[in-house]
Amino acid sequence: MEGTELNRWIAASRTAQAKPSVATPAQTSFVPEQARAPSCPVCSSAMQKRVAKRGANIGNEFWGCSQFPKCKGIVQDL
Ligand SMILES: [Zn+2]
């Protein structure tokens, strides 16, 4: 008798655990690219990710000032 009750309780708790948690959205771990964008060391504006198209670091990603070409501040991607 006791064993049957226990098995029924285990089955019920397994069913409860199998349900997807609606209270936890999947996108909470997603960090937008702009959230970790550094600010310009020259003018403190937001920076945008760019890819070097010329020079010794061609193809490398870096942060360029959003005020370019007015401001030429850059930050190397870490
Ligand atoms: Zn700047």
Concise synopsis of the structure shown:
With 78 residues, the chain is an alpha+beta fold. It has one helix and three strands, in the order αβββ.
What's the topology here?
Layout: H1 2-18, E1 47-51, E2 61-65, E3 74-76
Outline the low-pLDDT stretches: none
Give the number of DSSP strands.
Answer: 3
Q: Gap between N and C termini, in Å? A: 64 Å
Beta-strand portion reads 15-25%
Return the string of H and E elements: HEEE
Percent helix among the residues? 10-25%
Structural class: alpha+beta
Rg for CA atoms? 26 Å
What does this structure look like?
It is built from one helix and three strands, in the order αβββ. By secondary structure, it is of the alpha+beta class. It has one domain. A hairpin with an 8-residue loop joins strand 2 and strand 3. It starts with a helix and ends with a strand. The mean pLDDT is 82. It binds zinc ion. Zinc ion (ZN) binds next to loops.
Features:
3-stranded antiparallel β-sheet, 17% strand, 78 residues, binds zinc ion
